[in-house]
Every structure is written in C-alpha cells, then in structure tokens.
Amino acid sequence: MHNKSNQERSIIKTKISGKAAECACLNKLKSKVHILF
C-alpha cells in the first residue's frame, strides 16, 4: 500500500511538472509572437 501511494504521488508530480513545462513553452511562444507582431 505504501509503495502504491508513493508511486501515485510521483505520477502526479510528473504530471504537474509536465503541465508547468507546457505553460513555460506557451509563455515563450507568446513572447516570441508578441515580438513578431
């Protein structure tokens, strides 16, 4: 049981970090587009 909870926690962490990375990429793209326009 304890191992399972740790595994689930790590999966949630990776999902959150993935979303954060996506947001960072989107922000970079937005800034580049803003410079172009």
Automatic annotation (TrEMBL):
Species name: uncultured Adhaeribacter sp
Name used for this protein in its record: Uncharacterized protein
Highest taxon listed in the record's lineage: Bacteria
